[in-house]
Design goal:
The complex is a heterodimer.
Chain A (H helix, E strand, L loop, with lengths): L6 H21 L6 H18 L3 H26 L1 E2 L7 H27 L4 H30 L3
Helix pairs in contact in A: 1-5, 2-3, 2-4, 2-5, 4-5
Chain B lengths: L7 H4 L1 H11 L3 E3 H8 L3 H13 L3 E8 L2 E8 L1 H19 L9
Antiparallel strand pairs in B: 1-3, 2-3
Classes of the chains: A mainly alpha, B alpha+beta.
Chain lengths: 154, 103
Amino acid sequence: MESQLSPQEAQAALAAVDESRSDIADRLVTPWWYHPILGVLVGGLITVATIGVAFPTLIGVLAVYAVGIYLLMSAYRRKTGVWMNGFGGGPRARRSLALLFAVTLAITIAGSVLSMGLEIRWAALLTGLAVALTMTLWGRHYDNVLRAELRETS
Amino acid sequence: MIEPRFDEIVHAPNRLRICSMLSATDEVEFAALRESLGVSDSVLSKQLKALEDAGYVTVKKSPMDGRTRTWAALTPAGKAAFNGHVAELRRLAAGITVEQPVE
């Protein structure tokens, strides 16, 4: 469909698009408790997994983890009125998330080798703690990248 | 490659802003959209209905804290229409910088 818009009108419409994206970026202010709780949930799961518990116990822990994640995400949605899954951001945000995944995986593998391979059991706790801290600190960085990308021109 | 395509449904000012916000996220709650647009419930409902009828937006209700909240999201068709429309706006806006030849 052909439009009769002048260049000025098109620019004004693009400015409205940018302004709206900026509005939504302002709403994506993650509550302070979100990343620490997410870190504890993931770190706890990884501690249990690397300590080498029985399979039924692991299933139980997974169920608690799933309920915890659901409640955390529901609280986030209620608080902000916006939802965005981790892979919905721009290229820099997606790269940051991929790097976080790689670092978490590396920590988990190292922890598993120490805990289950070399039977240094306390390493499992250290692994979970390292993952929880990494997720908490990285989460804030990820939010900043995400918001910055949303504010950039459309 | 996004094909520039003017879309009358997307272009209406409030609908353009709604699509802009939804395109940047997965879902936005009705109250958040209303506050950002600064419009009444009925105006927002009407605009969302127009986008929903065009197949550009899905609207779903989910219970939270004992009350129902309404969430809106862009459909794949809505994303394609919005991206095409923005590409067309960019193409049209680029004309503003074209200098007129000196006679």
